[in-house]
Amino acid sequence: MTKGRLSGRQAGFSLVELLVSLAIGLVISIAVITAYLSAAGAARVAEATGRMNEDAQAALTIMTQQLRMAGVNPAQPNRNTTTLHNLLSNPYIIRGCDTTFSNVTSATTTAALTCPNGASPSSISIGYEADRYNTVPTNAGVPTDCLGNGLTGVSQTVTTSLNVVTTTTVYEAENRFFIGTSTYITSPSLYCKGNAASTNPQPLVENIENMRITYGVSNPGQPRSFGDNSPGVAAKFVLGYMTAAELIGSTAALNGSLTFSQPSMWTPTWTVAFPTTSTFSLSDLVSGTGFAFQNGVSTGAMIWKAWDAVQAVRVCVLVRSENAAVFDSPAQYLDCSGNLVTPTDRRMRRAYTTTVLLRNQ
């Protein structure tokens, strides 16, 4: 009896059974770890995608809102027809550059901006009459620029509908958008430089790596062939999209003639030397033939007039994830030009595009 009981207690698994058990346990462990890593990777990609979508939405919402206001100069109530609109000093509704304006933070006017040669990221200046309805006013009711800083008003003499001469204060916003970095925020971001006094550019949306802006141009007189391009008599058609350099430099893509008349919103300080004829070719816009600003601000080409052909603006932003989101291989993406790009890091990237009609052009 004792011998039998001892034999029973000493009985155990064979070596083969132990190896099989270890193998099964190892397979289960690998499956659990793989499932965990896969779920963690999917969650990481989903979180990065969500944040990229939010950043893109924020950036494009800002650009869309500003572009829709470009050129705002509303008719004022209780005004005589001679001063129905407030006078604006900036002849540019928009002015773009295929790269960042070299003096984007220091130029005192839109006309003084300098556009160097280059390709991306684009920058743009947007001008409009600001008031307490189309901006977020200060506590004192003063209209603001893109950064929420109060603008400096200019007093103007106007005539009411009862032919009473009075004064009013006019505010102009000129906001410049570009991609940049700073000492404290090293990730590329969408920046804005407003025209309020003594202000510095500030980042609006982080992780915006690139921005490409193209301009939808029209030939309203003959939408299917390039003929006279008289903005006063024809409907608006967008025939195609051009870069800023193409818009300014290519007379082959935009030919015909434009009828010129001095905008009523100009202040008297902006005077122009008119050509001998009532029309001028778009090549004149580049060469400056017969045209010059007479107030000392600028001489030569009246490039601002070329921007009158723009009816829509297409904005593409390239957004990247804040941190590395994939680890097995770089995440390829299509950039704003439709090119397949393989990055050198493990961040995710995606291009987002919107098209905005210039309502006040």
What summary fits the major beta sheet? 6 strands, antiparallel
The parts where pLDDT drops under 50 for at least 5 residues are 220-234, 252-301
* Overall SS class: alpha+beta
Oligomer: single chain
Question: What level of helicity do the residues show?
Answer: 10-25%
Overall geometry:
elongated
User: pLDDT average, as an integer?
Assistant: 79
**What is the number of beta strands?**
14
| SSE order, one letter for each helix or strand | HHEEEEEEEEHEEHEEEE
Number of domains: 1
Strand % is 15-25%
- Radius of gyration, in angstroms, nearest whole number: 31 Å
Termini gap: 108 Å
How many helices? The count is: 4
Q: Quick summary of this structure?
A:
This protein is an alpha+beta fold and 361 residues long. The protein has four helices and 14 strands. The protein has one domain (49-318).
Throw out a few tags for this protein.
6-stranded antiparallel β-sheet, 4 helices, 21% helix, 4-stranded antiparallel β-sheet, 14 strands, 361 residues
Topology:
Blueprint: H1 2-9, H2 15-69, E1 94-97, E2 123-130, E3 154-159, E4 165-180, E5 189-193, E6 202-206, E7 208-217, E8 240-242, H3 244-249, E9 257-259, E10 279-281, H4 282-287, E11 310-320, E12 333-334, E13 340-341, E14 349-357
Antiparallel strand pairs: 1-2, 2-4, 3-4, 4-5, 5-6, 7-8, 7-11, 9-10, 11-14, 12-13
